[in-house]
Amino acid sequence: MKSLSAAPLLALCLAPVAAQEIDKEPDPEPIVVTGRGLNETPAAVAYASREIDREQILTAPSGRIEDVLGAVAGFQQFRRSDSRSSNPSAQGVTLRALGGNATSRALVLLDGVPMADPFFGYIPLSSIAPERLSSIRVTRGGGSGPFGAGALAGTIELESADASELGFASGSLLANNRGETEASATIAPELGSGFAVLSGRWDRGQGFFTTPAADRVPASARARFDSWSVGLRGVAPLSDTVELQVRGLAFRDERTLRFDGANSSSEGQDASLRLVSRGDWQVDAVAYLQARNFSNVVISSTRFMRVLDQRNTPSTGIGGKLEVRPPVGADHVLRIGADYRRSNGELQEEAYSAFSGNLTQRRRAGGTNSDIGFFIEDDWSVGPVILTAGLRADRTIIADGFFRAIDSDGALVSETVSPDRSEWTATYRAGAAWQASDAMRLRAAIYSGLRLPTLNELYRPFVVFPVVTQANAALENEKLEGLEAGIDFAPADGVALSLTAFDNRVENAIANVTLAPNLRQRRNLPAIDARGVEAGLAIARGPFSLDATATYTDAKVDGDGASIALDGFRPAQSPAFAAAATASWRPADGWVFSATLRHVGKQFESDQETDALPAATTVGAYAQIPLSDRFALVLRGENLTDETIVTRNSGGDVDLGVPRTVWAGIRVGY
Fold it and tell me: Phi then psi for 138, rounded to 5 degrees?
């Protein structure tokens, strides 16, 4: 027994000797996962970009992602409506006043994956919950590099928050003065060296009347909405330099617009897999799958009967990217890779008589678009100067296009089978940034971009009664060339200013061109020229901060050679001036008070410069007041001055945007 009891003492005495004779293994460095792609390259500073941090994301007055992005002047949707009171298919986003149709001309990426709908090209804004995000980078100007096709007006990169930013559990529940509700919850446990995030959000409400009070009829309806989304994300290390990222998203959004029975829905199931290696040979590999659907019922504005039921528009998107960064020295970052996207979908709709309500036609339309791109880009740091140049080659294929209509008896009314076509397109971007002093950086860039017409633009006609817009299977790819120059200036700690002048030209710009009072068709315009300036100001002084941006764009249609006289006209839905500013005060930890001012200048409804949407200035506010370590009171206000926001004007028949809305609720975090 004595020998046994002495054994621990003997071991303690011999331990120092053993430690001297055997080299001690160093403690292994902890594995750190980020849940992001490869680090940004030095080239980022050569282009006009804007960062939105998590606090600014969380304090948007409406709690909607489009409101967050509105902090960047020049960002716009096709219409001014938010994602509760617009038709989902009109949620295209663009930058630099290159609007004109409902398809996105800006590339939106969530954790490196394109978010645009495979059939329509719109962004499912209601599925992107701001509370799930860590940061947003908006880069204006034509894209190149990975997924460069589609980045015609710029790129919007959304990065998801990790477990440390989200906390183990968090959530919020708010209601507004119309009795509408917004509920969200997130669980984000750390699992070994990785983490998982499970999140959900549900928004529902009776909505507001988009029709002015004087124009309402018994069939007029509020813009009811009911949307939910569930996200699952996991990040795990495979080694000390390699991590695996998995993401899934399911969502559904139902809305009513203008009249009883004018219901629309959109839904989707997305999945992506990403492998990131940060070793000597850096690799970013992504694969994704999207399954989407859309439906929409059109009600006659004169007889208030169903005239069109776009009951089913299933579509599928698949794609991926492989980017490799070989070790070429400390002064260079070389990116080599390829990306692929394929979109397939079919419209299924029925047309009805506005007088009898009887079925008149069944229509089917659809096709397949694909794009494979190869890219190379090099960033070279030479002292205070950064030089960057990149080149892409894209092979685009438009195939399997058709439109078929039969009458109620099954007899063929019309049928069109579009010929398959393909082409190679080369695009580029190059820039330079010179850190002239600690306070000043000068930059300049040239670039080009490419966007395929969507399946929607090629094959799907649509109706905003009584205006019919025809599809056009002969549409060509849009191509942009542009240049810009700017200065970033930091005259004092916590003060940053930026100024950028740009000149962009989009050839073959796709627009809804008026052919008759109630008839339009999607056509390629010869070009849209957009020249302008963008300014930004950021101030951070103790508990106070100010973030402001403004842009002026002189955008004109170059209609030389067009069959419709539009030369010199301003593109539809493109304001000349826009500005946004948010002032915040944080008097203590957890306390936040902010006010937001937004202004959007006058813009025209269509290509004819006849029906105008007046300028609108709105004021929003946000307040967060801690009630305990885990609970906080949240107050939000949208359009507090109750500004009249005209979102549509068709010959004096107008729709209105969100009126004064006040929210109150609780936010909790553990």
Answer: -110, 115
CA angle, 88 then 344 then 274, to 5°:
85
CA triplet 492, 498, 503: central angle to 5 degrees? 165
Which parts of 144-187 fold into alpha helices (H)? 163-166
Mapped onto helix, strand or coil, the DSSP state of residue 131 is helix
**pLDDT, tens digit (0-9, with 9 covering 90-100), for 572-601:** 889 999 999 999 999 999 999 999 999 999
- Predicted pLDDT at 1: 36
pLDDT higher than 80, residue 29: no
How far is it between the farthest Cα atoms of the chain? 107
pLDDT range class, residue 79, cuts 50, 70, 90 = confident
pLDDT band for position 609 (cuts 50, 70, 90): confident
Tens of pLDDT, residues 453-479: 999 999 988 777 678 888 899 999 999
Give, for 3, the enclosing helix (H) or strand (E): helix 2-21
SS3 418: coil
Please, what is the average pLDDT of the chain? 91
Q: Which whole-number Å values give the CA distances from 133 to 40, 49, 199, in the listed order?
A: 18, 18, 11
Q: HEC profile for 266-327? A: EEEEEEEEEEEEECCCEEEEEEEEEEEEEEEEEECCCCCCEEEEEEECCEEEEEEEEEEECC
Distance CA 349, CA 311 (A): 6
If one counts every other C-beta atom within 10 angstroms of the C-beta of residue 25, the result is: 6
**pLDDT at residue number 612:** 93
Q: For residue 14, what pLDDT is reported?
A: 34
Sketch out the chain's domains with CATH numbers: 45-669 (2.40.170.20)
Amino acid in position 459: Y
CA distances from 30 to 27, 161, 193, 197, 553 (A): 9, 20, 8, 21, 50
> Do the beta carbons of residue 331 and residue 309 sit within 8 Å?
no
DSSP state of 24: P
Dihedral angle of Cα 644, 646, 650, 652, to the nearest 10 degrees:
20
The contacts of residue 27 (CB under 8 Å, 6+ apart) are none
Please report where in the chains the tokens 């941090």 appear, as a residue: 53
